[in-house]
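During the reporting period the student researcher (J.K.) took over the structure-prediction task from the postdoctoral fellow and processed the backlog of single-chain submissions. One of the processed entries is reproduced below for the supervisory committee.
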Amino acid sequence: MECPVKKISRMSAAASIAMLALGMAACSGDDGAATDDGGASAEVSTEQQQALDAAYAGLGSDLADLADVSVEQGQSLYVISCGEAVPSCSVPAAAVAEAAEAAGWEADVADGNLNSGGTGFADAVGQAVSAGADVIVPIGFPCVAAQTGFTKAHDAGVTIIGGGGVDNCDPQQWASIRYWLDGEDPDTGIWNAQGALQADYAYGKLGDDVKAVVVNATGGPWGQYLVDGFSAELDELGVDSSEAIVDTIEVSDEENGDGSYVQKVLTELLAHPEANALIIPVDGYLTGGLSQAIVQAGLDEQLLVIGRSGDESAIELITAGDSGFDATVGYASEWGAWGSVDTAIRVLAGQDAADIGEEIQVIDAENNVPDAGDYTGSIDFASLFKASWGVD
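J.K. obtained the following structure tokens:
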């Protein structure tokens, strides 16, 4: 079944694997409550069902209040992908380029290569400046991750528009971030809300017995925002987060790039046989090898694994079942990408940036599964943006 998205603005809400599998089998007991697939409680209370309903409904906008704006033609836009090898970077980067071209602009993609060598992001920004970019949109990283590059771009008169990240440089260098929903914190709101939906789903499936290992992506501040949202929502649901979160694992961009995070996460899971949930900040961690490692280590029946993104490859694993991946918080990244171009258009036209409101909601094998491809939300956002820009 598919659940409608609530139109509201407030949050309610792999050789070492075999050894790890043996170790886990030796350390794990049968002391937990009766569970079904993914460690979820077989009986669901009224409060749990309400949390599940909130997770499936999610949050978002219908773009009904999007004002008309004139597009300044002749612009060259460069989108800086956090890493073209990762779908959560490459998909929105491609969508930014598509939106810019729909607006009549030239568009190119520069690959930040997951900040390879600590300079990948700044190098990509420099590439855009050297190529004569008028507008730069960084995907998946904050200002401080490429501060020298952004400072040079700003000084060169380039208009820098957030692609979901924050301008945490001092002084700030971006013309605007991308805004989400009215009433939400412009820097943290969408991330907190996504973490909260992960908590709603975990509580809905596990009740008061949540014992979660949480992975924090340290390559940008958004990773902590997700953790904060998860923790705060558990507390709101009456579950003491200090007890429910049994471990927090920090994963850097470098560990993501070389794949070493898989071993790191599995080792920590071995140290916490009481854990019944694994909270992941990016689906790419799971599709990049972690879900397979979870199955090979025999942990898939013990853990409720919740990701975040809604990439096609992730949804395929979720719907396949028995894959070490149970659910994800889908967010309409392509919608948000078009929103960054909309923000750029309005800034260049002297308007205030609009609230974009891309939808977020939990996807599992039976709920909110797209007909095909990545999760994109429930409305034809591209047509609505183009209509407000006055283009076909």
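The committee noted the following: The longest helix spans residues 189-206.
J.K. will present the remaining backlog at the next meeting.
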